[in-house]
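Support request, please re-run this one:
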Amino acid sequence: MLSIIIPVLNEAETISALLKHLTSHSNPQNISEIIVVDGGSDDNTEEQVKSFKPHRFQKPVRFVKSAKGRAKQMNAGARNATGDVLYFLHADSFPPRNFDQLILDEVKKENPAGCFRMQFDSNHWWLRLASWLTKFNWRACRGGDQSQFITKELFNEIGGYDESYIIYEDNILLNELYERDTFTVINKKLTSSARLYRTLGVWYVQYHFWTIYVKKWLGADADELYAYYSKHIRLKCKEKLSELHTAQPQEA
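Re-run finished. Output below.
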């Protein structure tokens, strides 16, 4: 049985569409529950989740509150999960049809952890190339946007996500899995939003993500990585969204 865990923060615009997608593209007999873990949203994410009524999907969609931080939220989801296999999914990533059976088939083949191939919802040539590269089972081609399945047993053995990392937490877990040679890539495509790239620009985002990767490789700690991300990505994104909001015509 699969427990789907979705960390969210102000995802009112996307969470209903994702829940509808998940419940219409899977077999409820394979699903223990869907757990949405909120890190302190101040929009109506909670209302969207609690009011969601899946059609003929007789499994609970649970809303759990947690301390802010994706690692903390995903660990909280894992603690509340009843399934044997955990499936961590970002709120703007949509897995392929029958994703549940595809994951469980891999586990039955003694592949305890893995992800799907990914494609961005963008025709930009670089994002198309980056998406194509995710077909290869190379460590450098991995990221949290591709989603992550892992048996609860292996997740607990590793110790879950490292909560000292505000960003890069997916990569820390992936490093553990690749070191154990326990990772597989399912040859089906998950579709992930390119909204961050559209907001800040493809090359701007890619440059700073590469820089974070290199900083970690050179020994940067969790605080240094977050400080860099906060300055160049998080705050810039807030500024850009504020500019776009200000530029919109106001109602009379």
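The radius of gyration is 18 Å. The CA atoms of residues 212 and 225 lie 6 Å apart.
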